[in-house]
Amino acid sequence: MTKVIALAGKGGTGKTTISALLLKYLTARTMTPVLAVDADANANLNELLNLDVEMTLGKIRKELKGELPIGMTRDQYMEMKIHQALIEETGFDLMVMGQPDGPGCYCAANQYLAMTMDKLAENYKYIIVDNEAGMEHLSRMNLRSIDYLFIVSDPSARGIMTARRIADITEPLKLEIKQQYLLVNRAPDPVPPALQTKIDEAVAEADMDLAGIISSSDDLINQELSRASYLDLAEDTQVITQAFAIFDAIFDHS
Question: What pTM did the predictor assign?
Answer without folding.
Answer: 0.90
